[in-house]
Amino acid sequence: MTSYLRAWLPSSASFFPLATAPPPPPSLTISSPPPSDDEGEDTETEIDVDDDRPPAFPSLNSAQRISSSANPSSSLSTPSSSSTTQPPKSTQPLPNVLRDTQLMPPPPLPSLANRTPRAPPPSVSLSPAASGEGLLEPLHTVTKPVVQSKGKKSRKVALAPGHSPLDWAALKSSGKDLRGVESLARIPPSVLKLHNKKNDAWTAIHGKVYNMTAYLPFHPGGENELMRSAGRDGTKLFALTHAWVNVDFMLDDCLVGFLVPEPSS
Ligand code: HEM
């Protein structure tokens, strides 16, 4: 009867898995040290062999392993087979690794003789004469000579407190009227000549007429030097003394007009 039933059922394992289950996969049983007070109660731990095995060294597909397999006496063979009781892992087909002699040779070193110098990087030039482009300098501006002639003494004077170049810049931007005229005018030399006093000093530089009265105490060369150009064209004196000074900027708020030839009667 029982044998009849067994033969009749398609698979007894699907109905009675515990009774006819296949043997478990091989596992490594390691005896753990005696349990301490605070540890669990298990005395044996089952560990998967594949998880605990150290990685092969040298690597399975490394050049060292290939060279050592060619020379069996080499010390690079896997040590695990001799030092442990684990069976040697199944031999896998080793990948084809090229030896140094089979590798492509490195490229030749570049020849210094064939090198061409790089073009200089584009840069902004402050000198329009040098490159024809870049920032334009104001008209009539000359670069200050760096080296002064030997023995030439500076003729700068000590300015009164509150009359530094910064104070002049502050006065210019204060909005105070420094011209003393309603509008710009065409000024002939005969009119310019009338403004030659310290409290009313005009001068013409590069064709522009400035009321320099307010600037007198701020002039680094002193009031007396500046007054030498009062009431007349001071372009030559100015250029002889300091052609690099930007008068267009320094006295722009003092502009009163433009120097014109004397009208013919
Ligand atoms: C009217 C417009 C003028 C302006 C805006 C002006 C401005 C200046 C400035 C900024 C300096 C200092 C330069 C520096 O630090 O290197 C200076 C110095 C000087 N200026 Fe003028 N100046 C003017 C006219 C004149 C004139 C007409 C004369 C001459 C007659 C003159 C004679 C001097 C002298 C002798 C110095 C001292 C230069 C030195 O030895 O360092 N300036 N001026």
Give a brief rundown of this model.
Helix content is 24%, strand content 11%. The chain is α+β, with helices and mostly antiparallel strands. The chain has a domain at 165-259: Roll (Flavocytochrome B2, Chain A, domain 1).
Descriptive overview:
- This protein is an alpha+beta fold.
- It has a domain at 165-259: Cytochrome b5-like heme/steroid binding domain (Flavocytochrome B2, Chain A, domain 1, Roll).
- Helix content is 24%, strand content 11%.
- The chain has helices spanning 2-8, 12-15, 17-20, 49-52, 63-70, 80-83, 128-131, 165-172, 189-192, 223-227, 235-242, 247-250; strands spanning 28-31, 44-47, 185-187, 196-197, 200-205, 208-211, 255-259.
- β5 and β6 form a beta hairpin.
- The chain is rod-shaped.
- The model is unreliable at 12-21, 35-43 and 74-84 (pLDDT under 50).
- Belongs to the cytochrome b5 family.
- Residues 67-95 have a biased composition (Low complexity).
- Residues 20-35 have a biased composition (Pro residues).
Tell me the layout of helices and strands.
Elements: H1 2-8, H2 12-15, H3 17-20, E1 28-31, E2 44-47, H4 49-52, H5 63-70, H6 80-83, H7 128-131, H8 165-172, E3 185-187, H9 189-192, E4 196-197, E5 200-205, E6 208-211, H10 223-227, H11 235-242, H12 247-250, E7 255-259
Parallel strand pairs: 3-7
Antiparallel strand pairs: 1-2, 4-5, 5-6, 6-7
The chain binds protoporphyrin IX containing FE.
InterPro entries: Cyt_B5-like_heme/steroid-bd, Cyt_B5-like_heme/steroid_sf, Cyt_B5_heme-BS, Cytochrome_b5/Flavoprotein_Rdt
Organism: Pterulicium gracile
Family: Belongs to the cytochrome b5 family.
